[in-house]
Predict the structure.
Amino acid sequence: MIGKKAKRGLIVIVAALLTLAGAPAGYAQQSNVNASASKYGSDKNEAIVYDFYNSTAPTSYYYDPNDRYQGWNGWTQLTPSLDNHALKLAISGANPQFYSEDQLHLNASIYKYIRIRMMNPNPTESASISWTTTADTTWNTAKSKAFTIRGNDVSYYEYVIDLSQTASWSGTIKQLMIKPEIGVGSGNIYIDYIKLDTENLNPGALTYNFDYDMNGWGVTGGYGGATVSATRGIMTIANTNAAPYVYSPDWLLFDPTAVQYIRIKMKNRSAATSGKIYWNTVADASFNEAKSASFAINPNDSEFTEYVVDLSQTAAWTGGGTVRQLRLDPERGVASGVEEVDYVILDTINPSDLAYTFGSGTADWTSDDSLSAAGGALTVPNTTADTKIFSPNNLNVNASLLKYVKITLKNNTYSNVGQLYWTTTDDPDFDERKSQTFIINEMDSGYTTYTIGLNQNQYWRGTIKQLRIDPSSMQPSGSSQITRIAVVADGDTSAQNGQVREGFLDYTVEDTAAARSIRRADPCRGNIRRTRYGIP
């Protein structure tokens, strides 16, 4: 099965998992994979992800039926199924509910946020989550929290339930219960994922990534001057005149003093050089030039480029009141061509790239061995099989915003693998978990820019403190030249993702008389899913 976006390529494992021979009892060896996170066997407090994108029923003899729904069970006034890469819940009563697996052993002082991305086409605007603890196993309203959801919604929206100030969210959480809607008694609810998170990353941001469909774009207001469709994570706008446009979902209802940046990742396959964003508000439902902002785009682009529309200094945006709807004009003035939109993000923070060039020295990069800079290139001689270079310390990089590292490198060795390591303010030591391999050209005749994607890596989190690069692994001779190293918000990893997987798989197999709990990597979506097997 092909993953979310065809342009990212089929994801395959670079090397087989290391053999378990010689490993301590109950321990599984570790390898770089395309992975998110789970709680079993980890001491790093990463997010626990229940992702229904590719939940399918395996044919294994050891298959537990609950795994089809990531361990969620106890469906009451609900009939679950998997539909279009989501958990579909058919409602048959006014008080529908379902439960997580029991014995979560969740530390409430660490996991303080629950993130649910779902679509609610029903008129209800109420939902709730409840929990039990190891000290109090009774379900009651004291251990619950209601949250507001968007009614009659035609797109997915991520709801963040902040439990950091909830007194009853304490101790060890045993089990969760979710009421996805309250009071309607019929209809369907769709859930993309449920995440138990340790921090509230980028609160207020709203993302449309067109993974499954138009995400509600083009429904209210429609589109014009083009034919518009979405497939494989791309919204394609084929121009039929010089003023193509498409409307966002209606009733967005966000605060423009908080959301001040619109990020559009797009490939412009037309000769146009500008696009435009319009908006209306609850107080003024009209679309007009006074409530608009233009942005420059690359003509006839062969790659996806992220454009950031900065509205933080636009008075009509920040002072106009609650924003209701957007209109995207992906290009202006050209009657033919195609625009491909990867995502639209309404963001609270403007990511700022971090880049190093070496025209006037080593830019404070260091090495255990000799390191020199001349002619705009950093020369890294391989004096051992473990040659490495280090960035300056205390980079203060926000990992939730800058998720790609780009390295422009000329490899003068027979190695075909490099490796990136990092430390964080919470975990200041270099180790294999906080690392990502990338494929390089052997004995390269020129410079190549390698884009390392870290948005699926469960240990690229928090504040990045320092980087380490092993530019050509396991080569005790030769050298590498590097002209640029950048940590950026956006990148195209399709060239790499056919050969490597993002993330790190670490799991423990519990040797108990009962069913052993292990974690399995989802080969398409790339999330570690917690799965119960009975292993003989």
In short: Residues 1-44, 55-63, 506-536 have pLDDT under 50 and may be disordered. Residues 394 and 465 are 5 Å apart (CA to CA). The first helix runs from residue 315 to 318. The radius of gyration is 25 Å.
